[in-house]
Amino acid sequence: MATALASQIREIKAVLRGREDPLRRPITRPSIIFDPKEAADIDLRTILSLALSGLDVLNELDSRFGKYRNTLFSHTSLEVDREKMVPKEEEKLNISIRSYLRLLSGHLQTPAALKTLEYLIRRYKVHVLDVDELILCALPYHDTHAFVRIVQLLELGNSKWIFLEGIKTSGAPAPRKVIVQQSIRDKGILETICNYASPTKEFQHSRPVICFCTAVIVEALGGIPRLDTDTVKRVLNFVFDGLNPDMRGSQDHKAGALMVVGLLATRATLAPKLAQNLILFVARVAQQDSKQSPDLSWLRVVVMAMVSLVQAQSTQMFPKKTIMILRDIRDFAAILSGLLLDFKIQKFLCLYLEALVDYSTSDDSCRLTLVETMESLPLKDFVERIVFKVLGFCIKLSRQVDSSKLHDAGIWGKQILLVIGNYYPCELQAAVCKYLENSMRNSTEEESVFDTFCLMFDGQLDLPQSISDSKVWFSLEHPKAVVRQATLSQIARTGIIKEFADTPQKLINVQDAIVRRLYDDELNVVQAALSVDGLSILIDHACLFKAYQDILSRCVHIIEKSTSKSSQATDVAILCLVHLVTDFGSHLDYSKEVATILFPFLLVLPKTWKVSLKALELVKQVKWKFYCDKLVEHDPVSCERIKGWDADYVTTINSETIEALANALLSNPQDHIQWLVNSSNTNKLSRILFLLVILKALMICKEVNGSFFKLHKACFPPLVNEWREMESRRIILLSEEFYMEKFDKVCSGFVDQLFSADLDAMNSKIMVCIFWSLVQACAEAAHQDSSEYCCDQILDELFLFFANSPSRNVFRKHLHFLVTRYNKDTFQLLSKYFTDEGFPEEVQIESLVSVSAICSMHTSPDTNMKESSPLQLLFGFSSLLIPLSNKNKDIRASAVSCTENLLKLWRSFDVSRLRNGNDMMLPRGISTAIFGDFLESIVNQKKLIISDVDFLSSFLTSMLSPCPDTLRAPENINKRFDQSTKDGILFFILSSALELSSYGKLAVFSLLKGVGSVIFHVEGLKLLLFELLERRNQYCITHQALPTIESETLCLLLEVFLSSPSSGQYDADIGSSLIKSLKVDGLSSEDPAGPSARMCDCPGQSHACTLYNHLKADVQYDVFSCKWRNGSGLRFKAGVWSGWL
Questions:
Q1: Model-level pTM?
Q2: Which of these ranges, 534-548, 578-592, 822-836, 856-870, has the smallest mean pLDDT?
Q3: How many domains does the chain have?
C-alpha cells in the first residue's frame, strides 16, 4: 500500500513539474519555433509531446534516433534538472546530449528536428550549457532562418564564435564566405570544424555535414598563400581519420580527405615521413575500394590524389609496404596509362618503376608487376632509368656475391631487358650504350663491366662468341666504334648470324642490334654491317630496305660535301647499291622502289661518278619494265677516262643514257609516266633527269610519226603540275631571254651544264624548252593534218596553260608561235575564249592580245600568211562585240585594242580583189568601205567604251535603230548611215552571232536589244525564236528543260518580238508557238521549265493587245478559253491578260 502510494505521489509531482505556476511563469521564454511570448504560455509537457512527434519522424529517417525516446525525451526527463545533478549523472547526460546534437546536425533542415531541439532548449538549456555543440550542429545551415534563431538565443561573450554576433543584431543569415574568412583568421575555428567532421569508430556524420565542413576546410586552405606547419597539423586529423578504413568513413569522408590531400601537396612543404604516411593511407584507400567497388572513375580519382602528392613533394622512394599495396590495386596499370595521357605523372612513374626494380630482385611478385607495367604503359621515356637501375644492380651484385652465383642473379636482369627489348629496342640500345660510355671513364672498369655482364647473362666468360648472344649484343652496342666494327667483321667471317636467326629466344634480339649498326654514325661500322651475308634472311624486308635507303642518302650527302670521308662514303654507297639490287632487285614488292632509287644515279657527275657507274652496271639486274638493255655499258678503259674526268666523254655517256630512257618512255608513255613523276620527286637530280628525258623524247618524236600525241597526253599534266609547283616556290629563275633560233643548241647544252649549273635555274630553262618543243610539235602535226581533233585539243591545252600562268611573260614567244603557225582558222580557235562562258579573265585578255597580234602581222608588208586569214578576222568582228561589252574593264580595253588593229587590217586590205568573181565570199554590207567607217566610229568612242560598260549598247542602238538612244551616244550618230546600210550591218552582225555559242548569242542580242524588232528581219532570228519556243513546248512531254542561258535568250527575243507596234510584224507560226508556251498548266514557280515564269515579266505587256488582235479568230478563242479555265495556272501577270483581253 505504501509503495503504490509513493508511486502515485511521484506521478503527481511529475505532472505538476510540467505545469508551472501561472503566477511564477516568465513573460518570455527562449524558443526557435515560437515567438518568445507565445513560448512562455506553452508548458513543458506540451513541448515534450511536440518533440516526441518530431522524434518519430526522425526515427523513420535514421533508426539511430530511436534510442533517445527513453532517455532525453522520456516522461521522466520532465523532472531532470541539470544544475542539480551529481557529476557522474551530469557527464552521462552531457554525452547523450552531444551525441544527439551530432546526429541531429544531418537533419536540422527538417521541421521535425527543430521540434526536438525546442525541447532540448527548454528542458536541458543546451543554448546555455552546450553552446559549441549547438553552433556546430547548426553551422551547416548557416544560410537559413533557423540558424539565425538559434544564434539569437546564444550568449557568445568572448568565445571563438564572437564573429557570429552580427547575426543576432541584423537577423540576416551568414554566407559561407564569413565562416571561411574567420577560419583563415582563427585557426582554432578551422581545427574545430576539422575535428567535428572527422569520423570515429562510433559515429559518422551524414552527407550535408561532411560536404559543408569539407567546403569550408578546402576554401580556407585555398585562401592561405602558403600553408605552414601549424595549419597542416590542425587539419591532419580530418585527413587521416577520413582515409583510415578502421574509422569506417563514408565515400564522402574519403573524398573530402583527398581534396585536402591535394591542397596540402601543392600548397605546403610536407615532412618526408608525413608525405610517406599520406601516400600509404591513400594507397590503402585505393586498395580497399578496388576490391569493394567496381567504380573505376572513383578509383582513378584516388590514384590521381596519390600521384599529385608524389609529383608535388620531394619524395625519394616508395617503401616496400606501399609498393605491395599498389601492386594489389585492381587495374592499376590501366589507370596509370590513362592518367599518363592526360597529366604529367612522370615523377610518380619513375619512382614507381625504380621501386619495382629494386624490390623485384628479392620478390618475384614485384618482378611480375614490373613486367606487366612495362607491357601496359608507354614507357619510352623511362627506359634509360630502368636499364641503368638493372645494370647498376648487376654491377653492385657482382661485388657482393661469388662469381659462380652471378649467372643466377643475371636471370632476373635478362628477363627485364628482354621485355624492354621487345617493346623499346632503340631506347634499350641507347641506354646500354650510354651506360657503357659512362663506365669508360675508367679504362680498367670498362673491361670489368663488360666481363661482369657476360658472366651474369651467359654463365661463363670464356664461352665462344658463336654461343654467347649477350657477348655479341653488348659488343654491338659498345661505345667504341672499333669494338662494334670488329664484332660485325667476326660475324661476317664466321657466319654465326644463322645461329641467332634459328634461336629467337636468346637474351636480346641480335637482329635488331645489327639493324641499328646499319644506322651507325661511323661509316666503318656501317661498312662492316653491310659485309654480313644473309641480311635479307635475318632482317625484316621493310626494315632492311629502309636502312639501305638511309645509308645511300647519308653517303650521297657526305660525297656532295667533299669531306675527308667522301672516299669511304663512296665505297659504302657502292656496297649498299649491290646489296639493294641483290636483295630486292628481283623482288616483286620492291623492284619499283629499287628502280626509283637507282634513277638519279644514272647520270654520271663529278662527285658521284663511281656510284653512277656501279648503278649503270646493276640497273639491268632490276626487273623493272622501264629499264632496257640499251643502257650504256662501261669497260675498264671507260672507267679510266672517267676517272681522269674526260668531260666530253662523260657528256656522251649521259646523252646516250638520256636517249635510251627517252626511247623507253616513247615505247609506252602512259604506262611509264607515273613512275617517272614519282621518281622525279625524290631529289633535284632525279627531277633534272626526268625533264631531260621528256625533252629528248619530244625531240625524237619529231622523227616518229604519230608518237607525239601519246607523249603529250601522258606528259602534259605532270609538266603543268611541275611548273605550277615551281611557281608556288618562286624558283622560276630565267636570267636570259629565250631565243628560239638557238633552241637546238640550248637543248644540247643542258647535259654539259649538269657539272656546274644551278639545278633550280636549269629546271626552269629545261621546262621552257620542253613547252617550246610541245608548241613546235603541235604546229608540225597541224601542218601534216595528222589528227585534227588531237591537234585542236593540244593547242587548246597549251594556250590555256600559257595564258593562265602567272609567269605568262616567260611564254610570250610560245604563244606567238602557237597562234601564228597554226594551219587552220586561228580566229575561230582564239575567239571561243572570249565568246564562250567560263574562261578566266587572263585567258580572255590573252586571246584578244593574240588576235590583235595576228591583225598586226597581216598589216605588215613582209607577211607570208594566207590570203584567207584577213577575211576570217574581218568576218569575226561580231565576236569582238562580246568582250567590248564585258563587265571587266581590262577585257574591254584589250577588245578595243583588237578592234583598232582590225580597223588597220581593213584599211590595208585590197577590197577590189574581193569584187572580181569573189562576191560569194562577202556578206551583205561588208563589201564596201562603209564597214570601215562603222569600225572607225566604234574605235573613235574607245575611251567611253572602256570607261562605261553600258555605253556600247546605247551607241549601237543610236547608230542602227530607227528610234535612237541619245542619252549616252553622240548627237546625229543615227544619221551616220542610211537605213539600207544599217540593215546590212545588222544582218552581218546577227548572222555571225547566230554561229556563236549560246552565251555569245545572248551577249550580242542583249547588246542590240535596243535596236528593236528590226533584228527579226534576219530570218535566222525568227527560226531561233521558233526553235526555242518549240523546245519549250516539248518540256511537258520530255521533261528536258531549257538551259538557263537559252531560257534567258528566249525571254530576250520575246521581249523584242512583243515590243513592235507594227501590224505586219507578227508571224503566225511564232504566235501559235508562243500561245502554246503560255498554256502550260500546273507549273510551280520553281519549275525548271523556266521561261514561262520569266516570260510574263517581258516589257512587251503594253503590246500584248496588238499581238492578240493579229491572231486568228480560233487562236483568239483558244487563248480566251484557256485564260478563263486556268487563269491562276497561267504565268502571265494580271496586267498582261488585261492587255490581251
A1: 0.65
A2: 856-870
A3: 3
